[in-house]
Specification:
Helix content is 19%, strand content 45%. The strands form two sheets. It has a ten-stranded mixed sheet with strand order 2-1-5-7-9-12-15-17-19-21, covered by helices on one side. It has a six-stranded parallel beta barrel with strand order 8-10-13-16-14-11.
Length: 367
Amino acid sequence: MAAEGIDRHIDSQDKEKIAFSGMDFQEKERSATFFQKDAEVLLSRSLSGSVDILDIKEALANDSGARKYLGESFRLLGKEYPKNIEGGYFIRIKKGKTVELPIQACLFLKAQGFKQKVHNLVIVEEGAKVNLITGCSASRAAKEGFHLGISEFYVEKGAYLNFTMIHNFREDTSVKPMSVAVVKENGTFVSNYVCLKPVKEVVMYPTAIISGRNGRVSFNSLILSYPDSVQDIGSRIILNAEGGQGEIISRAVSVGGKIIARGHLKAGEKNTKGHLECRGLVLSEKGGIHAIPELETDLQDVDLSHEAAIGKINKEEIDYLCSRGMTASEAQSTIVRGFMDVNILALPEIIKNEIKKLEEKMLEDAF
């Protein structure tokens, strides 16, 4: 089905909701598109000869390369993963290719009470470079929905993957993603996570394994938590090769919800470096933030560091902005916008302005 065909099968309200997850049905600034509604894949199309994009079941049935990679990242951690999948995407960027326009994927909940279970597999072959935007969203009709997203990322030698995940669910949706990235020699994996809309529960702890010399990993997140929300969100980087570098940066704001901000850096090889930074604002006594930074190694020749700070908005800042003509609510909104700086997401210019516009609209609605 073409993108315009999907457009005819969703109403205007759902279309607007999906747009908040970064999905552009016009595909003007995209190199490939994947769209799944509940368990049904409605679109899987590449507009670039450098990109393979398929329904994961189709890929596993017809591509021995896909079967070789499936589950390997979890096996490296000695972990099991759910096997009863109902869709998901397979994306492969061909060796040595640079894909200028982002790939987009959307996993959409439509039916009431639906439990969506997907397995996504992304392979960036040696020397390839790509940006991927995945949006997860739910219709106003998808009450009490559930989303389980299993994702595996393989960044081969000298490859680059910038992955941006935007969650735009409902206030009664439960979300439990599981993901592992494997980064080879001189590879780079950047993971950006944005959740600025109400959700019932999010539990996620993505892991990246640097298995090749001079691999680099960066996890960045922007989180806004509403009343009755629980967001247990963390990231872990395992530095298993010399010269490996890892960074975890998060900005969290509670306006009544509970946020658990986890971060874990583990140096398993010498001459590795990692930094963890968590900053939070608590704007309501009904919510709270719990930061849990972890640094781990048995080696001497490593450099791991962390910093964490949680507090409230300084009254003097509010007073100053009010003296300039703002209301107290407008002043608070302005300060939060500055705190939730999209620049921490390490986005390429081609999608930075797009994500910034989404963030501005989300925060405008929130305040």
